[in-house]
Amino acid sequence: GHVVSMVLHSGAASAAQWAVEAARLRAQLPAEVQESLRREEEAGTTSSPAYQQAMEFFYKRHVCRTVPWPECLGRATASISLPVYMTMWGPSEFSVTGTLATWTVEGRLHEITVPCLIISGEHDEATPAISETLNRGIAHSRMAILAGCSHESHLEDWPAYRDTVTEFLLGAAPS
After folding, report:
1. Pairing state of beta strands 141-146 and 6-9?
2. Which residues pair with 9 in a beta bridge?
3. 88-118 residues labelled b (16+ CB within 10 A) or e (exposed)
4. Residue 134 contacts by C-beta under 8 Å, 6 or more apart in sequence?
5. What are the strands, taking DSSP E only, across 112-175?
6. I need a labelling partner for 80 at 20 to 30 A (CA). Which of 73, 90, 109, 174 fits?
7. Which run of H or of E encompasses 160?
8. Is 138 exposed, middle or buried (0-12, 13-18, 19+ CB in 10 A)?
9. How does pLDDT run across 79-118, given as a tens digit for each residue?
């Protein structure tokens, strides 16, 4: 067997574009949240409660808008290995200083030749601009932005997510 179609959920083609979009989203946060992030980053205290509280504001806006967060998401985030995350990405979504800082596949997207659904949320940290980069680079792709959702759109609006993916997969199935 071989791959006949792909679904890319809240993905990106480059760390650089992710960083640019994260900075744009950060600039839209309330001034006091931005100030807390800046202050703790300058002090090198990104593991402090104040920094984590400011990040939580961002996460509730751009990672999962469901209140409270679904139990499965709580379990997943609790099991993140911070040493691995810090090594690969950096101290936060906004500070791409790890081994992935120069990662990009933007110039290789044309190598994807199967039908591809690019799906993300309207308020996703993987912003519609990031999804559009994938969509432009993959010849047989289509993009779906789920209204009112963020990064965890499959948890926030399961019926819309399921229906969008199902419709795509049925249309992409070989005859």
Report:
1. unpaired
2. 119
3. ebbbbbbbbebeeeebeeeeebeebeebbbb
4. 8, 11, 12, 13, 109, 116, 118, 141, 143
5. 116-121, 141-146
6. 109
7. helix 158-172
8. buried
9. 888 899 999 999 888 889 999 999 999 999 999 999 999 9
Q: What pTM was computed for the model?
A: 0.92
Tokens of 147: 């209204």
At position 82, the amino acid (one-letter code) is L
Question: Which DSSP state fits 117?
Answer: E
Q: Is the dihedral of CA 100, 106, 111, 112 positive or negative?
A: positive
**What's the rounded Cα separation, in Å, for the pair 164 and 151?**
16
Diameter of the chain measured on Cα atoms: 59
Torsion region of 33: left, alpha or beta (phi above 0 gives left; psi -120 to 50 gives alpha): alpha
Q: Which two tokens stand for residue 80?
A: 């993140």
| Beta strands per DSSP E along 87-171 | 116-121, 141-146
> pLDDT (tens digit, 9 = 90+) per residue, 134-149?
999 999 999 999 999 9
